[in-house]
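Q: Predict the assembly, please.
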Amino acid sequence: MDRVAVVGAGGFIGTRLIEMFHLGKIADVRPIVRSAGGLASLARFALDCRIADARDREALAAAFKGCDSVVDLVKGDDATIEATVDPIYRAAEAAGVRRIVYLSTASVHGQAPPPGTDETSPLSDRHPISYNNAKVRAELRFRRLRSGGEVELVTLRPAIVYGPRSYWTDGFADALLRGDAYLVDGGRGICNAIYVDNLVAAIRAALLEPKADGDVFLLVDDEIVTWADLWGPIARAFGVEITELPNLPPPARRRRGGVFARSLRPPRPLIRVMPARLKRGIKGFIAGWNAPPEPSAWERPRKQSPTAGEEIALLHTCNYKFPNQKARRVLGAAQDVSFEEGCRRSIGWLSFAGYPISAEAPSGL
Amino acid sequence: MALIGCGAVSQTYYAPALRELQRENVVRLVALYDVRREAVEAMRAHFPDASVVPEIEECAQLGVELAVVASPNRHHADHATRLLSLGMAVLCEKPLATSVAQAEAMVAAAARAGRPLVVGHFRRFFPAMQAVHSMIEQGTLGRALAFDFSEGGRFAWPAASAALFSRADAGGGVLIDLGTHLIDLLVWWFGEPTVLDYEDDALGGIEANCRLTLQFAGEIRGCIRLSRDHPLPNRCVVRCERGSMQWNVWDKTRADELQLVLAGGKVTVDGVLREARNMERSFIAQIRNAAQAARGLEQPTVPGEAAIATLRVVERAYRVARPMPMAWLSERERAEVARLRPPLLGAGTWTA
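A: Predicted assembly structure:
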C-alpha cells in the first residue's frame, strides 16, 4: 500500500479523505496539520500524524519522508495559498516523493464561467474575488516548478464540494437557523456540485494514473443540478420548502461579466419577511439552538468573507455546467455516489452534528 | 505556589489568574516546572521572579505550600503524589487522573500526607451553577426529572503539544477532557449515576464526538452530547416538575446567567445573578479556595474524593462504548467500523 502524506488534513476534505483512505484501506495515510489542535478530528484514527507548517520546507521534508506521494489540501488566506507552493514542492523533491496532487478549484475560471469553459481555457488573475486569483497564481507557480523539477504534478479543479462539514452543507444549515438563508434568482443557476466522496475518489485516481502527470482536471458530478436542488433537501429536512426562502433578484451584470455588488446584501433580519409557517418553524429551531458563540478559547471567530454576498450571487446565476469528460477519460474515476445519495448522506451528517433535523427527513439513520 | 506544567491551560488561564492573585498578595508564584523549555520560558515572561526547577521535588526547598499540577493528564497522578508526599497541597487540573485506580491512590496519598488535594473543576465556582445546585437542593422548581447537555465546537484550544490527542497521554478524547466538567456538575447535583449508554466515534484512536446517557437516583435521566469536531447547540437544560433551568455553555464570559422557564405558563425569567462573576473570576475563586485550603482556612470546594465518581463514570462509559451511527459512511466503511469496533458483550447498560 502506498504511503500518502496529506497536507492540510484537518479541513473538511482532508478529514473525509483520511477517513476514506484509512477505512477503505486505500493507502497508508499520514495527516499533516499546522498545529496540534488540527489533530482533534484526525485523532479518531491510530495514524502517524505530523505537525508542520506548510510554509516550512524543512519541517515538511521531514514529514514527507518515506511517503510515495503528497496531497496538497492547504487552505488559508490568499497569501498562505501562494506562500505554501514552493515549500511543498521543494520538500517533496527533498523527500523523494513521486507525485503531488494539488487541489486547486474550478473558481480559477470564475464563479459564473462563460459557456464552453474547460481545462484548456486561459487563466486570469484579474477576477473580482481575490481567492480565485490566489489559486490561479498558485497553479501557475506549481506548473513552473514541475517544468523544472522531478516531482510529478496533477492539478484538480473541483467546483462546489458538498457533504459532511462542507461550508455548502453546514453553512446553509447555519443560515437557516440564523434566519438569513436566501436564494438569488430562485436558486435556478447551475450548481457545479461534487460530493466529497467523489472528489476523494478522483484524488485517489490522480495519485495512481501515470498519464495524469502535468495535467489539470475539472471535477464535477455527472448530474446537472441547481442550487435549489442542492439546498432543497436540507431545507426540507428542517421542515421548510426551498421556495419559501427569501429570493433576491439576479444582479445586473457588467459588460465584462462582473456583477455590481449593490443589492447583494440579504435583507436583515430575513426572518421578518419570511412566510408565517417558516417563521414559526425557524423560531422553534432557534429556541433550541444557541446564539452564535462568544469568542472563546474553544471557538475561533468564523471569518466572514466580505465578498460572500457577491460570490453567492455569481454562483446562483451560473448557467454553465463544467465538463468532467476529461477526468472521466484520463483519470477513469467514476462517480460512486449519486446526487440523491450525496444529499441523503449530507443530511445524515447534519443529524449526527446535532442540527434539528425533522423526523421525516431522509437521513438514513 | 508552584506551577507544574506550563502548557496551554497555564498560559491561557493560570497566568492571568495568578498575576491578579499576586497583586492581591494572596499567593506568590515561586517555582515553574515543565520539560519543554519554550513553555517554561513563555510562563517566565509573566513571572520573572519565579525559579525554574529541573525536578518537582525542588519545589519543597523553595517553601512551596500549594502546587498546581497542569501537566499532561497521564502525569497528574505521579506529579501530585510526589508533591503531596513532600507536604505540599495540590490543585490538580481535571481530569484528576486517567483511571479510577490512580485517582484513589492520589486521594490516599493526600490522606497520608494530611494535605489537601483539590481538583480543577472550576465550573462549580460559576454563580449560575451554584444557583442550579441550590435550586435543585431546595426543590425550587419541584423535583428534577431530566437533563439535556450539549457542548462542543470546532477544536480551537491552543494546545501546545499533541498530548491531548493521544490515549496514552490524555486517557481518552472529548469525554475525559470536556465531559468531566459536565459529569462533575451532575454528580455534584444528583450523586453518582448509572451509565445507561455511551457511544463515540473513535476508530482506533480517541473520540472527537460522543453521546453519554446517564440515570441518577430518582429516575433523573438525560444525555450529554460532546464534540471537538463541529459546533453543537451548546445549550444545557435541567427539567424539573414546575419548569426548567437553561444556560448557554459558550457564554463563558458570563458565568452568572441562567434562564428559568416556568411550566404551564408563558413566563421566562432571564436573569443575571446578584453575585456577578465571569469565567475568569470563577477561575480565580478556585485558586483562592485551594490556597485557603492549603493554609487550613477553608474546606476545598472540589476535593479529590469528589472527582473519583466522575472518573468512574468515564471509565464505565469507555468500557461499554459502541460506535456512533455515522450515516455518511459507505457500506464498506461501515463494515470496517464494525471490524474495528466489534459489539461488546453486555453493552447497552452497565450498572455499578
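The radius of gyration of chain B is 21 Å. Chain B touches chain A through 52 residues (CB under 8 Å).
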